[in-house]
Specification:
Layout (H helix, E strand, L loop, with lengths): L14 E5 L2 E4 L4 E4 L2 H4 L8 H13 L11 H12 L5 E7 L2 H18 L7 E6 L7 H5 L4 H4 L11 E3 L3 H4 L6 H18 L4 E6 L16 H11 L3 E5 L23 E4 L11 E6 H9 L13 H16 L2 H22 L3 E7 L2 E6 L15 H11 L2 E2 L1 E5 L5 E6 L7 H21 L3
Parallel strand pairs: 3-13, 5-6, 5-7, 7-8, 8-9
Antiparallel strand pairs: 1-2, 2-3, 4-10, 9-10, 11-12, 12-15, 14-15
Helix pairs in contact: 2-11, 3-11, 4-10, 8-9, 12-14, 13-14
The structure holds pyridoxal-5'-phosphate.
Family: Belongs to the class-III pyridoxal-phosphate-dependent aminotransferase family.
Pfam family, one: Aminotran_3
Enzyme class: transferase
């Protein structure tokens, strides 16, 4: 009997080893990590540069409380991170994961508003569907009702606007009018709430688990930035999944040349080598907060030297191995393969994503875009079939505006063509086996 519990009672094989894009369980079975865990292990498993940096840090010091010491590891990582940001975003605050980072971004935004005499601003508008974390504050900005509903009495739900689901609404994603259509819903919401009450808009540049790699239509991100500026609303970019190169740019928002006020990082930031997250904020936001007495926020493990040493080495590997360019290149190849699978398998209704943040969505009917019946639990079943064939992919069934089962295929950015062949071939077999099981 295990003393552990996570989401349910189901037990999984026991992980023994992981190297590159492969993982082995204690029975010696091999798995291709086609989702980088949960879109985390961007540089692959057991990278020697990162392990060496962590060993070296471990020999020096494994903990130094942030109110007692600075550490070289956190200073170096902060500098390397700031160097990767759009100009002016150069104040870094470390945490241990994505939810903590989202909380930190919202609290910094609020403290800035107070410091500059805008205490009436407190609402953070987000999108539906969306996922920004599982702590109560992050859930309040999450548009995923099955996750938020049980906790509704314990949190203050924040306003939501629809995600830009052009592919479901039959709108042309290349037409800027489409992007403006969805962005203008944000403006309408700000006006309905009262602009003087709105603190920030929080979104992912490319949707992650909640929307299955939804890429915003042309014109959307730029218009969102304009709308935020017009109403004095801060733009917080949740790059927890998209950051650190996954979409083929260091930050997903770079694809549209949009400069956020606060960037939220985790997952690929330390690529699974240590629990690490962070926010990077505009200097002009942070200075008034520090002048007004400081940021009233901080976790005990913030800036943990081992996590920061891992993060710094991960950034070095990303640079040295040109992994951002590889994400774009391998992503284009994998997307073409997913499109080939869509041509062969009727059940796939959409393929989407950017770089190596890619997904396909099951549909009962491509014409009407009708989803598979919810009770089929297609997302779970398909993942299990692929898993049993030695391929790990990630899936979700969403509602809240995008009703459907999507499968994320997001291998580490070090993936090479023969491994993409293996992913395509296994998905092909898994799709055939899955389709054979479906009710007529
Ligand atoms: N934000 C986004 C976009 C995420 O995808 C996630 C996790 O999946 C989070 C925040 C929360 O991160 P964590 O699970 O590390 O708390």
């Amino acid at each position: 009997m295990s003393h552990l519990f996570y989401q349910g009672r189901g037990r999984k094989p026991v992980l023994d080893q992981a190297r590159g894009v492969y993982m082995w369980d204690t029975d010696g079975r091999r798995y291709l990590d086609g989702s980088s865990g949960a879109m985390v292990c961007n540089i692959g498993h057991s990278d020697e540069t990162v392990l060496a940096a962590m060993r070296a840090q471990m020999e020096r010091a494994t903990f130094g409380y942030r109110l007692h010491f600075e550490t070289e590891a956190s200073e170096k990582l902060a500098a390397a991170t700031a160097a990767r940001m759009p100009a002016g975003l150069d104040k870094v605050f470390f945490v241990s994961g994505g939810s903590e980072a989202v909380e930190s971004a919202m609290k910094l935004a609020r403290q800035h508003a107070l410091a500059v005499g805008q205490g009436s601003r407190w609402k953070v508008i987000a999108r539906s569907p969306s996922y920004h974390g599982c702590t109560l504050g992050a859930l309040a900005v999450t548009g995923y009702s099955s996750l938020t509903a049980p906790f509704a009495p314990m949190m203050r739900e924040m306003p939501k606007v629809p995600a830009p689901r052009a592919y479901l609404d039959g709108l042309d994603p290349e037409d800027p009018a489409t992007g403006h259509h969805y962005a203008d819903m944000l403006e309408a919401r700000i006006e309905a709430e009262g602009p003087e009450s709105v603190l920030a808009f929080l979104c992912e540049p490319v949707g992650g688990a909640s929307t299955g790699a939804l890429v915003p239509p042309a014109g959307y991100m730029e218009r969102v930035r304009e709308i935020c500026d017009r109403h004095g609303v801060l733009l917080i970019m949740d790059e927890v999944m998209t950051g650190a190169g996954r979409t083929g740019a260091f930050l997903g928002c770079e694809h549209w040349g949009v400069r956020p006020d606060i960037v939220v990082l985790s997952k690929g930031f330390a690529a699974g080598y240590a629990p690490l997250g962070g926010i990077v904020a505009d200097d002009r936001l942070v200075e008034p907060v520090l002048d007004a007495g400081g940021f009233a926020h901080g976790f005990t493990y913030a800036g943990n030297p081992l996590a920061c040493a891992a993060g710094h080495a991960v950034l070095q590997v990303i640079e040295a191995e040109g992994l951002i360019g590889r994400a774009a290149e391998m992503g284009a190849s994998l997307k073409a393969r997913l499109e080939r699978l869509m041509a062969r398998h009727e059940i796939i209704g959409d393929v989407r994503g950017k770089g190596l943040l890619l997904a396909f969505e099951f549909m009962a009917d491509r014409e009407t875009r009708a989803p598979l019946p919810r009770e089929w639990r297609a997302f779970e079943r398909f993942v299990q079939i692929a898993y049993d064939m030695g391929l790990i992919v990630y899936s979700r069934r969403t509602r809240d505006g995008i009703e459907g089962d999507h499968i994320l295929v997001c291998p580490p950015l070090i993936v090479i063509e023969p491994q993409l062949d293996e992913i395509e071939e296994t998905l092909d077999r898994a799709l055939t086996a899955f389709a054979a099981e479906l009710p007529a």
